[in-house]
Amino acid sequence: LNDLLARYESRLLVHVVKCPDCRTSDRRWCADGFAVGSAYDALLLCFDDADERHNRLIDRVMKAMNRIR
User: Fold this and answer.
1) Of all helices (H) and strands (E), which one includes residue 2?
2) What's the number of CA atoms in the CB half-sphere (13 Å) around residue 66?
């Protein structure tokens, strides 16, 4: 499950950094990001530390967005 979650997280990260409509912190996904975002959210439910993992993704998104700007 960790490998599967990591794959979805990577795909979601690439999409969210470029998409102005997706909001990782609110778990709101645009039409294009919905499939990956929903699958990622569903996989998180399998982990006891889901909130911590989600917060790490938010941190990664913020760092990536800051590098782009």
Assistant:
1) helix 2-18
2) 6
CB-based contact 48:63 (threshold 8 Å): no
Predicted confidence (pLDDT) per residue in 5-52, tens digit: 999 999 999 999 999 999 998 999 999 999 999 999 999 999 999 999
Backbone torsions φ then ψ of 35, nearest 5 degrees: -60, -50
For the question of whether the overall pTM of this predicted structure is more than 0.70, the answer is yes
What angle, 0 to 180 degrees and rounded to 10, lies between the N-to-C axes of helices 2-18 and 34-44? Answer: 140
Give every CB contact of residue 28 below 8 A, 6+ residues apart in sequence: 22
